[in-house]
Please model this.
Amino acid sequence: MACCVVLAFICTGLAHPGEVYKMGTIACVTGAIPQHGEYTLRGFELAMEDIDGVGFINGGRIELIVEDGQNIPRVALAGLNKLINIDKVPYFETVGSSVVLACSPVAESGKVVLMNTAATNPKIREAGDYIFSLIPGTASESKAAAEFGIKTLKAKKASILYVNNEYGHGARDIFNNVFTKLGGNVAGKEIYDLGATDFRTQLTKIRAQEPDLIYFGGHANECGRAIKQAKELGVGGKWIGTVATNAPETLSIAGQAAEGLIAVAFPYDPVNGTPKMKNFGKRFKERHGVLPTIYSANSYIAGLLCAKALWSGARTGTEIKDYLYTVKDWDTVVGRISFDKDGMVDLPCRYLVVKEGKFVPYE
Amino acid sequence: MLFLQLVANGIISGSVYALLGLGFGIIYSTTRTFHFAHGAVYSIAGYFAFQLVFWKLQFSVSVILSIMLAILLGIAIEWSIYRPLRNIGASAMEILISSLGLFILLQNSIIILWRSDPRVLPVAEIIRRGVSFGGIWLTLLQIIIVITSFILWIGLTLFMKHTKMGKAIRALENDPEMTEIVGIDPERIRLAVYGLGSALAAISAILMTIDMGIDPNAGIMALLIGVIAVIVGGTGNYTGTALAGLLLGIAENIGIWKIPSEWKSSMAFGVLVIFIVFRPTGILGKKA
Model:
């Protein structure tokens, strides 16, 4: 609510009577990772409530246009073309490294701001001036996973199980480079298709590699299945997953098999975090019955950021872009954020472990 | 040992593929309709079983009710969509497109009803626990999957050979016109095969919902595998279809023993291409 008051203060006197301002989202509502679509839409739902709660003077309002990108680049591009050419949005949100990298040149040439809320491939940093990320790149989280494996878990031999897209490839490369540089040995790199359900072949190969540590570079639903099947196959070694694995689906699918799974996380903690994080977590849980992932929180912020830019008087993609570069140390539901010269936020990493069916801080 | 584990994994996957092939195959070979919505029937059966167990219904009752729902759904699709289309002289392509549309509609209905979260049917942990048999790790659930598939395959073969309905289905498969002349009602037989095929899809969906969980996209993959198993096995050859399912499972697993895992899903299509080129009549078919 405090946020709304601040936003209301910012917006005073800047809007036009009855005008409709558009922003878009290319969410993966269907496709291989539809849970990500839910994360996005649920975050935006709360953001739109807060934005509508403040409102523009004289009845102006912001409209959210949803396109289903299915986490498939060509489908997302069709959605983006519609957003740019028909809906004329100056700002849109999307997720998925492959999708973000495919959409970036189009957003850049169309002078439309792309706000990435979940993709972490390192190439996104160089994707363009109009490309912003609310989540740090894989360089940060995969590096953190490799360092944690060597320094804290004392692992010497690791295997990597990763998804066959830009996200998984980025996670594999960074983890592999850092882990080997720190003296570890990467015994194998096994790949799987996005949304896969059967990991037994890859896990059988990993079992033969006898790793101390298995790095999982993929999404929550895939992680839940992989870790469950690993238990059934007697695969040894500790598991450490990407930020994406820190989600309710990992626990609901894997059940008891998830015990001991370590996940890299950012400071965002909807249970024990800052009052803003806790308030967001409580509100979200009351609405949907589950705690919000960082992706829902980022989508919520993406909605508010667009509103903030519009309220500041920015109207075109270029004006919104210029405004976003001025956002510094903004207190949000994921912590304080600032965009650097590449449009990226930087957040420190921490580690969670599954204990008694919950992610708790690793001690 | 790695090789033996991969073979075991292949037999487990292959058993489910065999069931998927049998379910799709009996419908396709009898009606010559490319029943795209079969994938949606598969998903709905899995989700419905999950829902009933979630509502605290007894597990066995939930399974039976889900199979019954799938049978009714299959019959309803034939009765309310395919039959009226045939009656107005729709082509095979028009029926296929309507089936595809229905598949998309049902798949999205699943997302609306159950959201997109993957669902797993809860069973006793002991059924899931992996046990090593001389270095080959298996769970009780996997053994149940293989045995169930084997029993259903044998049961279907006996049903087709020794029952009146089975013979009528084979008659319709071989010569629809003659079937009608000898007094068999083809519409009734069509309803029966949609029911039977949907029941097989439901059983495989329930087994998979216990083993790996189900999500709204599970149906399309199940359908694809079913179609490949039917082509590789030979249309109308149920033993061939079951063996093709097993072959696909084993090929997928053994295939990536020495090559990168990213080729796993290509294996089934690789087998399909080999059969189309070198043995278009199927695994047990006579040389063309």
About this structure: The CA atoms of residues 15 and 148 of chain B lie 9 Å apart. The interface with chain A takes residues 1-2, 5-6, 9, 12-13, 107-108, 111, 115-118, 120, 122, 125, 128-130, 132, 137, 139, 142, 208, 212-213, 215-218, 221, 252-253, 256-257, 260-262, 264-265 of chain B (CB under 8 Å). The mean pLDDT of chain B is 90.
